[in-house]
User: What shape does this take?
Amino acid sequence: MRVVVISYRARQFWNALSAVPAPDELGLAQEVLNPDQWALFRQLQPSEQAHSLAVMKRLSAQRLQWDGLTELNRKDLLAAALLHDVGKSLHPLRVWEKVLVVFGAWLSPVQMSQWGAGSPHSWRRAFVVARQHSDWGAVLAAQAGCSSVTVELIRRHQDEAEMPPSSILDYLLLQLQAADDNY
Assistant: This one.
């Protein structure tokens, strides 16, 4: 298990350094998002755009989980995939700060959570962004005209999902988290 985690984190680090979205992938995102949402997506760092596009593509490829979802549910989920980390655009993190957050979560999740409270204008900035970006992103998404479902998925994308899911929102959240965790 430890080798899997190290491999996953090494891939994350490499992607943070090198990932850039391909033009055809950006076109796919533009088909899902309205102009205000597209402008919001474009505020993400290129590596975060690439990550969000990978999450959306993973969801799109999982056709088996689409059964029973309406077209609106699918659109909400894909929009949430593209915008789930958009709160990070308010306080973009440098690669070394992302590494710090990963090590902090690994060494002491309780301490990291405490450091994540407060303002992002101190030495705790990276931890604050990691903890609060989902709330910030939900506000930005609402301002950009996202549906209430998309906004809630963005707000809750780091929360522990209810098992088994008791609502369509919980089911969509599980789908989003599975695609995000596997990138």
In short: The chain has one domain: 2-181.
